[in-house]
Amino acid sequence: MSLMRRLEQIRAGTEETVAPVSDGSPTEPTPMQNATLPTDTASGKRAATLSEMAAEEVLVLLRDMLMDSVLEALPANAEQLGVVTLRNLIEEALNEAVHRQGLTLRLEERRFLSDEFIHEVKGLGPIERLLNDPLVTRITVNAPDEIWVERLGMVQRTAWTFRNEEHLWRIITKIAKLLEARIDQRVPMLDKTLPDGGRVRAKVPPLVSTPTLTVDKGPENPFTRLIQQHQERQQWQQDTTEVLRQSLQDRLMQEMERDPSLMQQRDRLVRLLEESFESEVVSRNIVLSRSERVQLQVTLINEILGYGPLQLLLDDPEITEIMVNGPFHVYVERRGRIEMTNIRFRDEQHLMRVVEKILMPLGKRVDERVPMVDARLPDGSRVNIVIPPVSLNGPCVTIRKFSREPFTINDLISFGTLTPEAAQFLQA
Hints:
Number of strands: 12
Structural class: alpha+beta
Order of helices and strands: HHHHHHEEEHEEEHHHHHEEEHEEEHH
Strand order of the largest sheet: 3-2-1-6-5-4
Number of helices: 15
Radius of gyration: 29 Å
Shape: globular
Largest sheet: 6 strands, antiparallel
Helix content: 40-55%
Oligomer: single chain
């Protein structure tokens, strides 16, 4: 049976079941009705439930009929667009698709479809509205057409479904990408902790016959912040300044390959950077302030001669410890207090390059076979590195710095570490 024919039948059935059923005569329920309808409800409540379920099935069928036409009409950068702009584009594409298929949409159906397609582009498709429900604590997807939720301690099957296995697989892949993880035929299982303390588990073939997904969550949508970070990262990669930085870094690396002595000649490298910088800015017609130029040059020098984004923190004498919890969360201990910084890495690969730069002179390595290693920087600072699968949030690096000037007795007294009497005793 075609989707169009099924839609017509359900719509007709919806209008017929709005009135209460009075004669108690049995009607042949749909599979969805069999799955959720209690057998001991009163006839009026039964009719209302049938009507509500049929309406939800209509919405799902409309979504499946129009999804390809609407999403294919959107621009390639739709995910980076603002919600208002995206909604306008979706409504234009929806009007064209509806007109081509000769459909008539009700106002509530049109509103639902606009929201659903926004969820497809910016969110996680059919489970987005469930993730946003503060009463839902668990979402279990056993198959594309079988989604269960735990709400207020009660487990119930929802009317919402995925279009097919490909649709479900695409959402699982999107979740893995947000978590900087991998899931495919070679790595068919995903098990990650979420920022709110929840957990996401997924399995795909050949480990299972059909993809499955389970999300444990709190009152808030645990993926909202991850999606925002993902979008910021994409914008960052497309930013003109980032393109300029990458181009300059490539040119300097090529020069250093031709002349390795540049590594030991910082002044000469800075002059070469300034010359390359001017030519790139002119050729790309980029306008930068003096502070932006200086900041970009310092960033490049730190990437090549230092430890990338960490170098500024290592050079700060007030910082005693650096804690990197994945590429986007860098904390420091300053004057005994832990605080989050605005320092971040571009992605996990960027962080891993810095890790390799720390370990390479020491002859050490870190990988899936050896996921944890201890090391020391040239100044004596202790370094601990942990990567997946031991770490759940991407590579984690902890650097415990040592003071460049050793503490004196007077320093220890002023810190409150020693009392004057204890210091006098030790000096005796």
